[in-house]
């Protein structure tokens, strides 16, 4: 599935978003040490994100609107609302991998100090493309998934549970085929959560 939309040009240049350069760095190639925090020690993501995410329902329209807002502003509150709760990892992944993923993301992504709001798109990247696949399709590694998702998903395809949808997207300049690429946005347990490059969990 592919869609595009255009909005006004960005006033700020893109930078690291909560220290996620390692996980969601720009993908010019396109498709191809903090302490761990227990889910019991932090607020439920679904509770803390409820009001921030009100304008973004859990469907393709909501996903597109959320991605556009991230591309344009990358507001701190909105980004932090994407932090998964412990239950979200277990809803998306098989049990053993869910525990690994929570430890990895909490230590390398969400445990970092918040950065100033920055757009996730670079200046001039006014077009957005979005792709969606169910976790069942990822597990089956269908042609559509192979075409539109990073190859690293093949390494963890069997770690997903069935029944959810995963989104990948990019921001490009008009006429460009490649730009800033992101993946791992999922609507789970009543809110949007971000699980970028899950195959990195295997290296964690």
Automatic annotation (TrEMBL):
Keywords: Signal. PROSITE patterns: PROKAR_LIPOPROTEIN. Residues 31-44 have a biased composition (Basic and acidic residues). It comes from Streptomyces scabiei. Residues 1-30 form the signal peptide. Residues 29-60 are annotated as: Disordered. This is Lipoprotein.
């Amino acid at each position: 599935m592919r869609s595009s939309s255009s909005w006004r040009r960005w006033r700020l240049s893109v930078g690291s978003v909560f220290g996620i350069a390692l996980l969601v760095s720009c993908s010019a190639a396109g498709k191809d040490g903090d302490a761990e925090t227990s889910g019991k020690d932090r607020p439920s993501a679904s509770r803390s994100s409820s009001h921030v995410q009100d304008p973004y329902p859990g469907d393709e329209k909501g996903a597109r609107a959320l991605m556009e807002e991230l591309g344009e502003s990358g507001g701190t509150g909105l980004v932090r609302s994407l932090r998964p709760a412990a239950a979200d990892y277990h809803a998306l992944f098989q049990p053993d991998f869910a525990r690994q993923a929570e430890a990895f993301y909490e230590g390398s992504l969400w445990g970092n100090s918040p950065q100033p709001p920055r757009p996730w798109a670079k200046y001039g990247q006014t077009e957005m493309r979005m792709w969606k696949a169910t976790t069942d399709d990822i597990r089956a590694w269908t042609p559509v998934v192979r075409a539109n998702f990073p190859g690293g998903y093949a390494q963890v395809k069997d770690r997903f549970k069935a029944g959810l949808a995963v989104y990948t997207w990019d921001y490009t300049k008009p006429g460009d085929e490649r730009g800033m690429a992101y993946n791992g946005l999922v609507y789970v347990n009543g809110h949007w959560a971000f699980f970028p490059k899950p195959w990195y969990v295997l290296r964690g």
